[in-house]
């Protein structure tokens, strides 16, 4: 088991150092590493996990990584997976907060290269997922329809509604079709642990604000604020930012500096908690803010997976999941355009770099981290001219 933990740490840390481009790109990086390269799970099980995490509040890509760690190595595996994926960017953002003034600029060419490579990564993931999750005309149509709706209704609530509608359609359309056996989801913990996790989640969400007037501590205030935000935000890091800006006592300039820094580092955007916690209360504040921000994700995933692994094996659920999985492909297709393509490609030369990195990734099958480095160099050269 020790070797398995080391394996999880290596894989997740590599992803934590190279996964640029936001949640949609992270899903692509995860698929390359865990499905294609390491074969820890197949596309169907991976899509089931992605679909589940889309329903839960918090950072979906981090929850996918935690879920894979839980399946691979139990509760400790989930913690190790989170540490590897999250801590590189947390450390970088803490250093930004400690050493960079609010006037620091993050609009350099190498950052543009990081944005550009995300287009190739997401496109590559989309091709692979379409082949296995939307292989026929009906499911391709579901995917395209969901992509259109996602672009027309770009909200977290809209995304959840789209997944639900696709699931209902899938249930009625595929309920009489032959259903493949659900890929096995082995967990080292059961429903009792799941129930305890759910109870703890709601106890903390309820009691922390109630006790806040009686506890005069900046660390308690940080824990309460970031736990609450991490518990109730759907839609990923960009959605959490307005809430944090209202809740956290830092200047607008400093907040925007942290946002720029968070865009420049790999990993989840929720790690901006490390920057803001460092500004508010030093290293201790940063560590508490990060822990509190991600704790709801752990509790929700641990609480849900034991029940999800049971209900997803039912024939009706499997039929619904055919629609849901096609919807996930559609949502990823929409994300490929906005925000990935729209934020990365600002000129013909940017699209040239997209074509180069896509060819290296798909045709020559270079490792994603190598393609990231090449894109960084190309972005730096092109945008310095």
Automatic annotation (TrEMBL):
InterPro entries: Chr_Tranpt_l_chain, Chromate_transpt. It is found in: Cell membrane. It holds the Pfam family Chromate_transp. The keyword Transferase does not apply. Keywords: Cell membrane, Membrane, Transmembrane, Transmembrane helix. Its main location: membrane. It is a multi-pass membrane protein. The keyword Cell membrane applies. The chain crosses the membrane at residues 79-101, 113-130, 142-174, 195-214, 226-244, 256-279, 285-307, 319-337, 349-367. One of its GO terms (cellular component) is plasma membrane. GO terms for molecular function: chromate transmembrane transporter activity. PANTHER family: CHROMATE ION TRANSPORTER (EUROFUNG) (PTHR33567:SF3). Belongs to the chromate ion transporter (CHR) (TC 2.A.51) family. This is Chromate efflux transporter. The gene is chrA.
């Amino acid at each position: 088991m020790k070797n398995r933990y080391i394996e999880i740490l290596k894989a997740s840390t590599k992803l934590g150092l190279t996964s640029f481009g936001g949640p949609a790109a992270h899903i692509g990086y995860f698929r390359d590493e865990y499905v294609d390269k390491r074969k820890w799970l197949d596309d169907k099980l991976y899509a089931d996990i992605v679909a589940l995490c889309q329903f839960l509040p918090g950072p979906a890509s981090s929850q996918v990584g935690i879920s894979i760690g839980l399946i691979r190595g139990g509760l400790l595996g989930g913690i190790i997976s989170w540490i590897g994926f999250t801590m590189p960017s947390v450390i970088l953002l803490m250093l930004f907060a400690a050493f960079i003034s609010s006037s620091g600029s993050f609009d350099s060419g190498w950052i543009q290269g990081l944005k550009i490579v995300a287009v190739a990564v997401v496109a590559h993931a989309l091709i692979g997922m379409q082949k296995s999750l939307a292989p026929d005309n009906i499911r391709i149509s579901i995917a395209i329809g969901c992509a259109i709706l996602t672009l027309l209704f770009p909200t977290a609530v809209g995304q959840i509604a789209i997944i639900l509608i696709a699931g209902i359609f899938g249930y009625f359309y595929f309920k009489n079709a032959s259903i493949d056996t659900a890929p096995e989801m082995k967990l080292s913990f059961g429903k009792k642990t799941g129930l305890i996790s759910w109870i703890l989640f709601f106890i903390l969400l309820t009691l922390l604000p109630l006790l806040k007037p009686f506890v005069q501590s900046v660390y308690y205030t940080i824990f309460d604020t970031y736990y609450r935000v991490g518990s109730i935000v759907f839609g990923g890091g960009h959605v959490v930012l307005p809430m944090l800006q209202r809740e956290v006592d830092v200047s607008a300039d400093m907040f925007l500096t942290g946002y720029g820094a968070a865009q420049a580092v790999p990993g989840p955007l929720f790690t901006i908690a490390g920057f803001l916690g460092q500004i508010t209360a030093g290293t201790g504040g940063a560590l508490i803010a990060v822990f509190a921000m991600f704790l709801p994700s752990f509790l929700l995933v641990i609480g849900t997976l034991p029940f999800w692994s049971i209900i997803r094996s039912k024939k009706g659920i499997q039929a619904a999941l055919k629609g849901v999985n096609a919807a996930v492909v559609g949502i990823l297709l929409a994300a490929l355009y906005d925000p990935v393509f729209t934020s990365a490609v600002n000129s013909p030369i940017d699209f040239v770099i997209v074509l180069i990195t896509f060819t290296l990734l798909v045709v020559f099958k270079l490792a994603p981290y190598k393609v990231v480095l090449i894109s960084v160099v190309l972005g730096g050269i092109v945008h310095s001219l």
